[in-house]
Write a structure and sequence with these properties.
about 150 residues, alpha/beta, Beta Polymerase, domain 2, two-stranded parallel sheet, 7 strands, elongated
Amino acid sequence: MNQQTLDKRLEETADRLIGIERTQENRVYLLCESENVYDVCRFLFDTLNLRFVITTGVDAEHCFEVLHHFADDECGCMVTVKAFVRDRENPELDSITPLIPGAEWIEREIHDILGIAFTHHPNLQRLILNDDWPEGVYPLRKEVQP
């Protein structure tokens, strides 16, 4: 699909989004609240057949941001679903692992380092932190001192 067709198709998700941002011609961000992330990712993966690339997590100013990155290899565009997880005390987000099994390990990593619980994830056991790492301490949160 070309860039113009992709842009038009992305508008179909507008009712589940806070907004759409374009930082470059081939870089699109779909901003959404956490409760809509699974549906938006399912649309990109199942309907538009975009390729899942990776997920990243950020401890932002007043919330956590979980960014699911997808690629449209035909037109060379990256589409990122940016979900805002606003509950800093008990952060949770629907897992996309039931939809995209390849997301399992990166969601486990984000759980380890930021403490975001991915609901419906098949196995949120530790992946990268040592067994003796203290429970409830997440090394990439801003309040954790080096």
